[in-house]
Amino acid sequence: MFCSRSSMMKKLLTLVLITRPNQVLLGMKKRGFGQGRWNGFGGKVEKGETILEAAKRELFEESSLKSDDLKEIGLIDFEFVGDPQILEVHVFTTSKFEGEPTESSEMRPQWFNVKDIPFDTMWPDDHLWFPLFLSGTKFKGYFLFEGHDKILKQTLDKVDSLPDE
Ligand SMILES: CNc1ncnc2c1ncn2[C@@H]1O[C@H](COP(=O)(O)OP(=O)(O)OP(=O)(O)O)[C@@H](O)[C@H]1O
């Protein structure tokens, strides 16, 4: 199979943010990448599935929620100094879902008021783009990290549409 240099260097990931009036559902990551931080639900896109399918699957695996209404709202590239692989994170949101948030081996879900989002215990990029997500504005971003706590470079732009739509 032919893989272009850019696709070889990219890892596709999903991130799903579930909302209800004035609240957002976050999960405390219990293990693996981003352990100890609140985040949306998501993970790696597996072979043979679309990005949207991966988003739905990870949402269900990590929170027990199902949704057929995920809308892509953001696209973020993350780069880490010393690592050639870019993480391409597709951010989805919906307020239409079924089920009760349930703790999984990976995530402990909790509703947060939008005025009370625990940015101090989240990835440092989140407080920069959450306002766009919360206001329903589509966005594209790029963040260069040194380690997991420091952003060295960033871009963040509002967009009218995202490539996969
Ligand atoms: C650097 N700044 C960041 N800011 C906000 N969110 C970030 C992030 N970097 C990664 N993310 C998200 O973190 C999850 C990791 O998922 P991750 O545990 O690696 O995937 P998956 O569940 O497939 O893993 P296992 O195969 O079980 O290890 C995934 O939603 C991804 O979008």
UniProtKB/TrEMBL annotation:
Quaternary structure and interacting proteins, as annotated: Monomer.
Keywords: Hydrolase, Magnesium, Metal-binding
A GO BP annotation: DNA protection
Pfam families attached to this UniProt entry: NUDIX
Superkingdom, natural source: Eukaryota
Entry-linked InterPro entries: 8ODP, NUDIX_hydrolase-like_dom_sf, NUDIX_hydrolase_dom
Protein name per Swiss-Prot or TrEMBL: Oxidized purine nucleoside triphosphate hydrolase
Record field: catalytic activity: 2-oxo-ATP + H2O = 2-oxo-AMP + diphosphate + H(+); 8-oxo-dGTP + H2O = 8-oxo-dGMP + diphosphate + H(+); O(6)-methyl-dGTP + H2O = O(6)-methyl-dGMP + diphosphate + H(+); N(6)-methyl-ATP + H2O = N(6)-methyl-AMP + diphosphate + H(+)
Nudix hydrolase domain boundaries: 9-134
E.C. no: 3.6.1.56
Keyword Transferase: no
Family matches, as CDD domains: NUDIX_MTH1_Nudt1 (cd03427)
Range of residues in the leader sequence: none
Transmembrane helix recorded as keyword: no
Role this protein plays: Oxidized purine nucleoside triphosphate hydrolase which is a prominent sanitizer of the oxidized nucleotide pool. Catalyzes the hydrolysis of 2-oxo-dATP (2-hydroxy-dATP) into 2-oxo-dAMP. Also has a significant hydrolase activity toward 2-oxo-ATP, 8-oxo-dGTP and 8-oxo-dATP. Through the hydrolysis of oxidized purine nucleoside triphosphates, prevents their incorporation into DNA and the subsequent transversions A:T to C:G and G:C to T:A. Also catalyzes the hydrolysis of methylated purine nucleoside triphosphate preventing their integration into DNA.
Gene Ontology CC: cytoplasm
Named cofactor requirement(s): Mg(2+)
Sequence similarity: Belongs to the Nudix hydrolase family.
GO molecular-function terms, A-Z: 8-oxo-7,8-dihydroguanosine triphosphate pyrophosphatase activity; dATP diphosphatase activity; metal ion binding
